[in-house]
Specification:
The chain has helices at 11-28, 44-53, 104-114, and strands at 2-9, 34-40, 58-66, 79-82, 92-100, 120-128, 141-145, 151-152, 168-174. By secondary structure, the chain is α/β, with parallel strands linked by helices. The protein has one domain (11-146): Rossmann fold. The strands form two sheets. A six-stranded mixed β-sheet has the order 4-3-2-5-6-7, sandwiched between helices. Strand 5 (92-100), helix 3 (104-114) and strand 6 form a beta-alpha-beta unit. Helix 1 (11-28) crosses helix 2. It binds inosinic acid and magnesium ion. Magnesium ion binds next to strand 5. Inosinic acid is lined by residues 42, 67-68, 74, 97-105, 150-152, 156.
Length: 176
């Protein structure tokens, strides 16, 4: 089987939308410092691009959780692979994710982090797949809603590949 990728959201459209969202977030957090938490690995390209366009003071930390094997279906099992380096107590925390699909990863993360008593805790995602939702999670900020297709690029992988693509594409498998 050969892997094929067709462009769903172009590089130009992603960049433009991130710019818009960054302006909105900067406005909403005016006078405060945002503590960005990147959910590795997929959230990294989005967080970097978003952070460059924020006009309020920003600090960053990284967390890695795993909820996926190498397949294209969510396992529902979430495990912390790397915890935060710093305390989030009394900070304005914004979680930055690549995608909310079933919502299991984010539900788990939001509960875990809210127990650490941040001043505020919000969720920002590049992509939202509402049709995949299995648990009740809503992003405070989302760049794009997408259909229930398996996508790669802009941080999203298939078997650890394609995270570096500067656009979002739908992955399909064709017989060769
Ligand atoms: P959830 O727990 O089902 O919401 O899925 C969370 C994680 O599954 C995301 O952070 C991604 O790493 C992965 N994931 C979900 N949908 C896709 C997709 O379409 N392409 C690549 N990874 C995905
Ligand atoms: Mg992810």
């Amino acid at each position: 089987m050969e892997e094929q990728i067709s462009v769903l959201i172009s590089e130009e459209d992603v960049d433009k939308r991130i710019e818009e969202l960054a302006a909105q977030i900067s406005e909403d957090y005016r006078g405060r410092q945002i503590h960005l938490i990147c959910v590795l690995k997929g959230g990294a390209p989005f967080m970097i691009e978003l952070s460059k366009r924020l006009t309020v003071p920003v600090s960053m930390d990284y967390m890695a959780v795993s909820s996926y094997g190498s397949s294209t279906k969510s396992s529902g099992v979430v495990r912390i692979v790397k915890d935060l380096d710093e305390s989030i107590k009394d900070r304005d925390v914004l979680i930055v994710e690549d995608i909310v699909d079933s919502g299991r990863t984010l539900k788990y993360l939001m509960e875990l982090l809210s127990a650490r008593e941040p001043r505020s805790l919000k969720l920002c995602t590049l992509l939202d797949k509402p049709d995949g939702r299995m648990v009740d999670v809503e992003a405070d900020y989302s760049c794009f809603e997408i259909p229930d297709k398996f996508v790669v690029g802009y941080g999203l992988d298939y078997d650890q590949k394609y995270r570096n693509l500067p656009y979002v594409g739908v992955l399909s498998f064709v017989e060769n």
